[in-house]
Design brief:
The structure holds 2 protein chains of 2 kinds.
Chain A (H helix, E strand, L loop, with lengths): L6 H9 L3 H23 L2 H18 L9 H19 L17 H20 L2 H12 L4 H8 L3 H19 L4
Chain B lengths: L15 H10 L6 H6 L1 H21 L9 H16 L2 E4 L6 E4 H12 L5 E10 L7 E11 L4 H20 L2 E13 L1
Parallel strand pairs in B: 4-5
Antiparallel strand pairs in B: 1-2, 3-4
The chains are: A mainly alpha, B alpha+beta.
């Protein structure tokens, strides 16, 4: 039923202290926020931390939310910053979770599939953090270059360069491209 | 194979990243006539499409959000909300009872949602003027369906909230302001 209620109404209610309205926003956006964190950090435990911190920060920052950007853009900005901070505080690359593909009917095919995905995941994890953030927002969340630029606070040409370079690195690491 | 983030060009001069943008974004080729006749571009495009398919498949893999994540987030948010919440104070000879304003708000919301036509209700309590320990004013915002007369619907919400909230929470409500923010089908 709450799906019929626009984000802006829920945000105003949450700004008035309505915790239930905020919970509805959490339910609406936690999947995409979690996916961004997971693909940037590579670990489910780190991603969960980042998502919790994202929404707690969002709750604290609600009084300053001025409705001049969408809720998704606002949350994506917070989660990418949290993830970038976590990456910066790591001394080494974090441990990557296994890719769970479930039980396919053909074990050989499933193993090949898993191997290809593992290679993509590792290639993403090897990207410089700023490139990784831009690529995740573009390829996983389907944001336009302009939206990615808005979330990351960079110019559109700078974002295009980051994404193009990230793609080249991934294609070289995951295929037999020479 | 050495990995570098420098852009590369094919022997025909076309930049690899341009072809990759074509594959990943569906961007049109910069020079369609050249590309359709160029063996280097055609070979590169075939290989890039094959390689990029793995990335596309991976981006479409469903992500399983941990089951308890919402509860964990909301537990932390509720602690923060409680730190700033006020209480109504119900006196009793053997002690006092405090009921958070948040409880009054949630009670009013749930009562409002029992009225047919109310899709969503939010509420905010305000200190009564002059401040009294068990008295509050209430501001409510509604999203309603198209159909019922809005003033009747607002009256019905006001009536049930005024009647039931004191019974359930002990809070005495004076003003109940209602604002209808949106209408749905």
């Amino acid at each position: 039923m709450n799906g019929q209620v626009e984000d802006s109404i829920l945000v105003r209610a949450a700004q008035d202290g309505d915790v239930d309205a905020f919970e509805e926003l959490v339910r609406r956006y936690q999947t995409s926020v979690y996916r961004i964190a997971l693909r940037m950090l590579g670990s489910s435990a780190d991603a969960q931390d980042a998502v919790q911190e994202t929404f707690v920060r969002a709750w604290r920052a609600l009084p300053r939310f001025r409705h001049d950007s969408s809720v998704s853009t606002w949350l994506y900005r917070i989660v990418t910053r949290r993830a970038l901070d976590k990456i910066a505080s790591r001394r080494t690359t974090g441990t990557l979770d296994e890719v769970d593909l479930g039980g396919g009917p053909d074990p050989v095919q499933a193993a090949e599939h898993q191997e290809r995905f593992r290679a993509v995941k590792q290639a993403i994890a090897n990207l410089p953090p700023e490139q990784r953030a831009a690529l995740v927002l573009r390829e996983f969340e389907g944001l336009s270059y302009q939206e990615v630029a808005h979330v990351l606070g960079a110019s559109v040409p700078a974002i295009k360069t980051r994404i193009h370079r990230a793609r080249l690195i991934i294609i070289r690491q995951t295929s037999s491209w020479q | 194979m050495a990995v570098t983030d420098q852009a590369e060009s094919l022997p025909c001069g076309v930049r690899l990243e341009e072809l990759l943008a074509q594959v990943a974004d569906g961007a049109p080729p910069a020079d369609e006539r050249h590309q359709s006749a160029c063996p280097y571009c055609q070979t590169a495009l075939r290989r890039l499409r094959r390689g990029w398919a793995d990335v596309t498949d991976f981006t479409q893999e469903p992500v399983n959000v941990p089951r308890r994540l919402t509860a964990q987030i909301m537990a932390r948010v509720r602690v923060l909300a409680a730190q700033t919440a006020d209480f109504i104070l119900l006196g009793h000879p053997r002690g006092e009872t405090r009921v958070s304003d948040a409880v009054v708000v949630r009670t009013a919301q749930r009562l409002a949602r029992t009225i047919p036509g109310v899709v969503y209700a939010s509420a905010r309590v305000e200190q009564h003027d002059p401040p009294l320990p068990d008295r509050r004013d209430l501001s409510m915002r509604l999203v309603v369906t198209l159909g019922p007369a809005l003033y009747r619907l607002a009256d019905a919400v006001r009536a049930i909230v005024r009647r039931q909230t004191p019974r359930l929470t002990g809070a005495q409500l004076d003003r109940i302001d209602i604002r209808i923010d949106d209408i749905t089908r």
